[in-house]
Amino acid sequence: MKHIFKHTVIKDSSYMLLFGALSYTLGLVQFQLPGMEGALTDLREVPLLISLFYLSNPLYIIGLSLITALGTPASGSFLSTFLMHSIALFISWYIYNNLIKRKIKNLYIIIFWIFYVFVFYFLLLIPILIITNYIFGLNVNKDFSLFYWEIVTNTRIEQISVSVITTLYLMQFNFKNELKKHKNSLQLVIKEKTKELTDNRDKLLLQNNNYKTLNKKYKKQNTLLERQHNIDAEKIVLSELIKKSLDEKISLNEFLQYVLNSLIKIPWLSIETQGAIFLKNNDGNLEMVAKHKIGDNRLEHCSLVMAGECICGQAITEKKSYIGDFRSKFEIKADSIPYIHMKKPIMFGNEVLGLLNLYLKKEKGIKENEIAFFDTVCNSLASIIYQRQLKISLEDQKKEQDILNQKLFAQSLEVDQKSIDIAQINSLLNTQKERLQVTVDELGLAKEEIEQQHKSITDSINYAKNIQEALLIRTELFSSYFSGEHFILFKPKEIVSGDFYYVNKVKNNLIFAVADCTGHGVPGGFISMLGITYIHDIIRRQETDSPGEALNLLRKRIKETFKTFGSENNNGLDIAFCSVNTDTNILQYAGAYNPLWIIRNGEFIEVKASRNPIGFYLKEKPFANNEMQLKNKDKIYIFSDGYKDQFGGQHNRTYTNKKFKELIINISHLPMKEQNEILETNLIEWKGENEQIDDITILGLEYVFA
User: Fold this and answer.
1) Residue 646's pLDDT is what?
2) According to the model, what pLDDT value does residue 554 have?
3) What is the largest CA-CA distance in the chain?
4) What are the φ and ψ backbone dihedral angles of 162, each rounded to 5 degrees?
5) Are strands 499-506 and 509-517 parallel, antiparallel or unpaired?
6) Where does the pLDDT of residue 447 fall: very low under 50, low under 70, confident under 90, or very high at 90 and above?
7) Residue 598: what are its φ and ψ, rounded to 5°?
């Protein structure tokens, strides 16, 4: 009972208060629908529907509905609002939990949810609202069907917004739950395999006392293998190396060369394409047995390293790793060789078998998880090297035993007994090898399962991308607003973008903007949906003709939306917002960190933005409104910071604002379509093999007098 109170009652109560407060707050943020005088709506249903994913007991829906009903406008009925949400949410909770219990695929649940939100309004919320209004004597003179379609029409934007927002949240919620389930499944498999290996080790310990030393060393080998199974993120790489080590057709040196080549090709490691692997010889010195891009000068001095000499020799003598810049300690100087090294001894138990030497990228450094990965690789290599060397040692012992059998024929019975013992050990080793192969096959199946899960999640996010693209303006509609050429370079970092662009025309004002929301991917997409909705509402309601005042109103709405998270949260966006009067050709501009660039007959003009974001800021001030008389064929550019912040080039640095400005000036005389192609080609060449670090949006247009 204590456990239930601790984990269920408190959690459900907390969710009830949290989502109830969010719904109450969003109920106060009402906005007028475009073209509908006096028709107000809100987004209070967003937290109510999201709460269904968390509540384990539907009785807490009553508390949620009470808190929400406290925000009922004076023109409405508290009891009507309470009953409407209570009944609709009870039915929704029952439907959602039955979907989860039936173990339906996430993609189908998300598709079902998108359409269910509309059913939630059409068949539950709105009919219940009308019925309760009649019960309590409100709107009794209105015809049911006319009243129904009036409410449906007034809430159409609310229905779309609630569907998009709750679907995005459901995708993220289900994605986290699937990862958690998969993690628990993998931990169970690892636990079972570890237990199986432990049982096998105990059986080996019961064998012939004459091979006690061999059994102790083999026990250490099993311990290393058990540690390998605790690695999750690197299991695929390790399974390939283990599988390769089982190929008896390749020698130990050939296998180590394969390992080195495989490590260097891994893209997420902070290493250069240079390195070497050493093995300790019978004299206790290091011999280079595998290498990649090692110059002749360095190869001449480093093919054989004496113990205690240089950093490599010290690493095996002191039995510890070295990571750092050892330039001053090298006798050989070569500018083409990086001096940030990682030298890790390959140790089996307390015995040094060799050394892994890799060159690191100075700009990136090396992370703790990468060091842990290389520790695991070295442990695995130690186990494989020891097993190979042990096999060679056993073969040599067998040859010596055969010679001894010929000389001591009189003691044949004793020799026969020892031969039987050796055969038993070899049989056990073969059995262990077969079981290890089974483990490798099972890891391969796990890899296929992960790839299937990744495909399912990617399909869901791709569907969200289609929803987001539906809210962005179509190119054909953009072209109808003005006669000049234009381009939009829109390249999200991930499938769903945190950047968005907005173009509209209200009477004789051409309005266009580019915004960069906090984050990218699904979180950034969530905020971008709010940004598009709020900007569209402000423009269509014509609350102001000033871009500066429009940004002040947008900041107020963003702060009201996120105020329950405290003033220190960083949810918000940067934006460049322009409005052009097509009769007077006067441009008004206001910006939050994002500037406006104009190129007029080769002359570069920059209008700087206010140093305030759309969101919480300690030194908040009104956004400045700037006016400028445009001339015919002025080139106008607004953009996010993704292009200039992209890493690349010969030294892997950011593109910088200076280079971006020079590029725009140099191509401004070309047609807009050709400018777009040059910007995209230049980005690909600059980025090279680097990943795109942020969403990228650039809007360019040539303003031509009507």
Assistant:
1) 94
2) 92
3) 119
4) -65, -40
5) antiparallel
6) low
7) -130, 135
Nearest Cα residue to 357 out of 293, 283, 268, 284: 293
Query: Alpha-carbon distance 25 to 27, whole Å?
Result: 5
DSSP secondary structure of 616-651: --TT--PPP-EEEE--TTEEEEEE-STTTT-EETTT
Higher pLDDT, 37 or 172: 172
| Alpha carbon distance 658, 666 (integer Å) | 12
Handedness of CA 383, 384, 390, 394 (dihedral sign): positive
In the chain, the N- to C-terminal Cα span, in Å, equals 76
Mean per-residue pLDDT, 275-296: 83
Confidence of residue 516 (pLDDT cuts 50, 70, 90): very high
Q: How far apart are CA 75 and CA 30, in angstroms?
A: 14
Decide if 219 contacts 204 (C-beta within 8 A). yes
DSSP, collapsed to helix, strand or coil, labels residue 321 as: coil
Query: Residues 6 or more apart from 519 whose CB is under 8 A from it?
Result: 498, 527
CA-nearest of 338, 350, 342 to 322 is: 342
pLDDT computed for residue 468 by the predictor: 61
**For a pLDDT cut of 70, what percent of the chain falls above it?**
76
- pTM for the whole structure: 0.41
Residue with tokens 């001096």: 339
- CB of 43 within 8 A of CB of 30? no
List the helix and strand counts (H, then E) for the chain. 21, 20
Nearest CA to 301 among 330, 339, 342?
330
The structure tokens 């040196």 sit at 253
Contact partners, residue 176, CB within 8 Å, separation at least 6: none
- Distance (Å, whole) CA 74 – CA 399: 99
Confidence (pLDDT) at 489: 94
Any alpha helices (H) in 472-520, and if so which ranges? 475-481
Q: Which residues contact 636 (CB under 8 A, 6 or more apart)?
A: 578, 587, 596, 597, 598, 700, 701, 702, 703
Average pLDDT, the chain: 78
According to the model, what pLDDT value does residue 353 have?
84
Q: Is the pLDDT of residue 285 over 80?
A: yes
Contact predicate 43/161, CB 8 Å = yes
At residue 356's C-alpha, the angle toward residues 353 and 358, to 5°, is 170
By residue count, the chain amounts to 706
Query: In this predicted structure, which of 95-109, 186-200, 509-523, 675-689 has the lowest mean pLDDT?
Result: 95-109
Q: What is the pLDDT of residue 334?
A: 47
Cα(62)–Cα(64) distance, integer angstroms:
5
Between helices 547-562 and 10-28, what is the axis angle to 10°?
Answer: 160
The answer to whether 286 touches 354, Cβ cutoff 8 Å, is yes
Residues 79 and 87: beta-carbon distance below 8 Å: no
> What DSSP assignment string belongs to 545-599?
S-HHHHHHHHHHHHHHHHGGG-TT----EEEEEEEEETTTTEEEEEEEB--EEEE
> Is the Cβ–Cβ distance between 552 and 623 less than 8 Å?
yes
Please answer whether residues 69 and 81 qualify as being in contact, where contact means their C-beta atoms are separated by less than 8 angstroms. Answer: yes
